[in-house]
Amino acid sequence: MVTVSEIAKNKIIELRQKDGLAEDYAIRVGVQGGGCSGLMYDLQFDATQQPTDHVVEDKGIKILVDRKSLLYLAGTELDFSDGLNGKGFQFKNPNASRTCGCGESFAV
User: Fold this and answer.
1) Is residue 88 within 8 Å of 80, Cβ to Cβ?
2) Predicted structure pTM score
3) Contacts of 103 (CB under 8 A, 6+ apart)
4) 44-77 pLDDT, tens per residue?
5) Ordered DSSP codes for 14-56
6) Which of 32, 33, 44, 63 has the highest CB neighbour number within 10 Å of its CB?
């Protein structure tokens, strides 16, 4: 299961409104090969649910995860930081054995 922090929830709602997207747009969270650690996170708005998607709702945010990515993302919390150490969404992934300095890629 993938969850969102309260701060991430508020940022998702803000960005969805800023982009003029309807409330039925979900967050699609996925994993792709690449990055300096071997796997990269992918995060985007999506209104189309695929038949093989795992669908979760947390704090009123609908989250879509494809079957392959779910293996890497189980237990992950999506957070948001706007502090001095960087601004953006962060993945708190208990499955990651290491992450790169930018936090956008990981290895298991």
Assistant:
1) yes
2) 0.86
3) 86, 90, 91
4) 999 999 999 999 999 999 999 999 999 999 999 9
5) HHHHHTT--TTPEEEEEEEE-STTSEEEEEEEE----TT-EEE
6) 63
